Amino acid sequence: MRGFVERVAAAISAHGMIAPGEVVLVALSGGADSTALLHALAQLRGRLGFQLCACHVHHGLRGAEADADADHAAAQAAGCGIPFRPEKVDVRGHARASKLSLEAAGRELRYRLLAQAADGMGASRIATGHTADDQAETVLLNLLRGAGPAGLAGMAPVRGRLIRPLLGVSRAEVEGYCRAEGLSYRLDRSNLDRRYTRNRIRHDLMPMLQQIQPNVVAALCRLAEVMRGENEYLSQQAAQALKSCIRTPLGTADSRCIGSDTARTRVVLGALTEMAGRQGEAIALSLDGLAGLPLAVARRVLRAAVARAKGDERDLGLERVEALVTLARAGRTGSVVELSGGWRAERTYGRVVIAPASPRSPGPADEWDLPVPGRLVIANLGVTLTAELSEEVTLSADRDLAVLDADQTGTDLFVRTWRHGDRFLPLGMQSWCKLQDFFTEAKVPRARRAWTPLVVSRESREIVWVAGLRIGERYKVTERTRRTLRLQVQWRAATGGG
Asked: What is the pLDDT of residue 358?
């Protein structure tokens, strides 16, 4: 069937799947699809100027049958005179450990092993045998899951190094090619197991739909093609919108909270991320920016932000995305949406912050003596404080540098964190207030409050300085000041020490 090979060649050309000189690895299961793909590419390699190799992934699920599949794949590769690499994985064990279905676990491991094999064999492309029927089933499967345009777009002909040259060819055409060329192939009996949703779609739903619409496979593939274009456009819009919505995690337009130094804002949630032992960086999105976006784009921005922060989109279905949209558009400050992997999205002042759930906050009994003069490193707060006595009375606009009247503060100071019932007399105020109310007025997010260092006088037990925010009124420099205490805070990533 020369026409089959030519259709494969046309798909490669139309989508720029393979460049001359590239090495292509075929994912060779031994079934009809991958066998037909292998032999079609073997006929095209000379004409198109690429090299072939193959890899078979044994899932460890079907005993002797799977062993025979692996032997058959090796024989097919040898018949084409190409390098072959067998791989074996424990899908059942991975499914248990990762709390995934067998299908999801198998897919995850299969693509991981194929990528490793491609790297080891010098292949820049990985070709799979997905057909038009697979595409139609994927669209239906995603439709039943309530997917949006991304799901209805199905599988792309090219995604990164992955290529699907048979995506425009039906399963019947593949099997016809194998018969015409005398190619033997293996039958995977697990494809008949109706416990798997895809198999019920393939063997029950698709035949019913074909009675209504004989060309249902072609129709669903056209739908996927249309939605792929729509999805690409929306993705481009979302990427631009994400850039405009991202803010430094704990920053705020109100300079009373953090001032203009954004270094500390990166440190605070960066410290939480490091202490939580997770990959990725916290991301904050502007509520005003999100509110100005069309709903379709806002959904994608939130999904992309979570994926970028966490490194994956696991358990990020439509219901969770809608919860994020509600959080951003109608939630109260402090509202939270829990995400998988120990992450969460929290609405703070003017932002939605996506970050790891906070590790254990410093205990209220934690205290650290501040040597005056001297230097104090508090690893689990992620700060370094230095104290210096000086005859200079010049004030500073740097909020990370507090200039105080040394005769009022004394030198017996310590550092601690927020305790229930703390009261504070902020600079410029005539009456005491609850520290909690001060944090609220200063728009300090709740997640940040327990990590804010407080410099306290051991003699009076009063808060001398809320580091990085404001000094106490009773400790300000006046015309009677003769010497000053200069306190400097440096913000860095916490290491979880004491």
From this structure: 60
Q: Are 120 and 252 found together in one domain?
A: no
Residue 362: what pLDDT?
62
Q: Would residue 137 count as lying in a domain?
A: yes
Which amino acid appears at position 454 of this protein? L
**pLDDT of amino acid 315:** 75
For residue 373, whether the previous peptide bond is cis, meaning omega lies within 30 degrees of 0, is yes
Report the distance separating Cα 438 and Cα 194, nearest Å: 61
Question: Is 0.70 topped by the overall pTM?
Answer: no
Q: What is the pLDDT of residue 323?
A: 92
Decide which of 327, 356, 385 is a domain's last residue: 356
Mark whether 416 and 382 lie in a shared domain: yes
CATH number for the domain spanning 311: value is 3.30.465.60
Residue 404 is part of which domain span?
Answer: 367-491
286/309 same-domain check: yes
Mean pLDDT of the chain: 87
The answer to the question of residue 362 being in a domain is: no
Last residue of a domain, one of 193, 212, 228: 228
Instruction: Provide the token pair at 230.
Output: 């729509």
What CATH number does residue 397 fall under?
3.50.40.10
349-367 per-position pLDDT tens digit: 888 988 877 655 566 567 8
**Burial classification of residue 426, based on how many CB atoms lie within 10 Å of its CB (0-12 exposed, 13-18 middle, 19 or more buried):** buried
Does one domain contain both 220 and 240? no
pLDDT value for 1? 58
Averaged pLDDT, 62-69: 89
pLDDT at 265: 39
Mean pLDDT of 73-86: 96
For residues 392-421, one letter each, b for 16 or more C-beta atoms within 10 angstroms of the residue's C-beta and e for the rest, the string is eeeeeeebbebbbbbebbebebebbbbeee
